[in-house]
Automatic annotation (TrEMBL):
The gene is mshA_1. It holds the Pfam family Glycos_transf_1. Coiled coil: none annotated. It comes from the Bacteria. This is D-inositol-3-phosphate glycosyltransferase. It comes from Rubripirellula lacrimiformis.
Amino acid sequence: MTTSIAPTAHADHQARTSPLRVAVYLADQNPHRDRSLGITSMTRTLMDEFAGRDDLAMTQVISRSSYAHPEPSIQSRKIPFRTDQTLGRVMADAFHPWLARPEVDLWYYPKGYVSNWSTPHRPSIGTMHDTIVQHYADHYPETRSPRAFRYWIELTKRSLRQLSYVMTISDHAADQLRQFCQRHDITPPPIEVTYEGSSWESLRGHRNAKDDCVTHLASPAPHKGTNRLLTFWHTLQQRGHDLPRLELIGKLDNAGQQILASLRGVTQYPPKSMTELQAAVGRSTALLLPSEIEGFGLPALEAYYVGTPTCYVRGTSVGEVVGEQGRAGEFDLEDVDDFAAALAWALSVNSATVTSISDEMHSRFSNTIIANRVIDAFHRAANR
């Protein structure tokens, strides 16, 4: 039976007599190669907060190719090879505790995966973001080979069995993990919801002039719903709806390109730098997030931080993030009329309401609050 431990409101971190020594495994994060760039963003934001704390002594375990936090107060142990290719990654995942050998009280795995070829030093804690690999195996089995699905599902199962303690980023994600454990007959470690923050919080209060456009972060990944959104857009144009300009930022698959060719007033842009992306979302009237499964819904948080309301799929974790005031932006995954109603709300909602939603989200998900929750979880894991 899964144990879920509610986060504390705010622990007295300064009262702890000596810093907790934590090794953070970063050698498995190669942002120039990874698809999971959100995890590196989360890691960077957390470590920005950790670097200024006197209740933590951080050591990052990195490789020649991986992400490494630049703060000099964080010690580094470098694995002497690259991990952006299969052999190096497998070797680092399997042998990093012996290659790095930091003297620490706790190991932290931001990606949440434990290698099939090693047993993590205990105590260990990981952030497990979702069970999207199981979702794909169930709904999109054609997207990977059976062998690949077996590998990633077994890796998720092993991680849940081997980690001493698990953090996750929403109640919705915690439910996914519990259902996965029940499905695969796993007795899980304690699971604690710590949520997630964003570096975009530094942009709160800054507002761009709005254009008559809406933005979607396009992706060929089926769960992101890009083709579903383009189909909705086509239907609404056929019905004569007065739609704003739609800006797609990212890539489309072949089916998406075919739908795009039939649309008016839709422009596709390649992936943008972070500064360009923040400006693009900030000047949009709405962010369209038709993803059918999310661990947290970080794009919605970031969009509200720059003053942009979000339309998102009902029943996902995004509703948990935006709160009651933003619920008018949700729509049913298969209902174009429901999507049209959500879009109409986003195009008409006043700036005071958007600011109120942003402020309420920041009160729950500010980087300092998230770091406090995570550090409290570190101590609970270390003390088990």
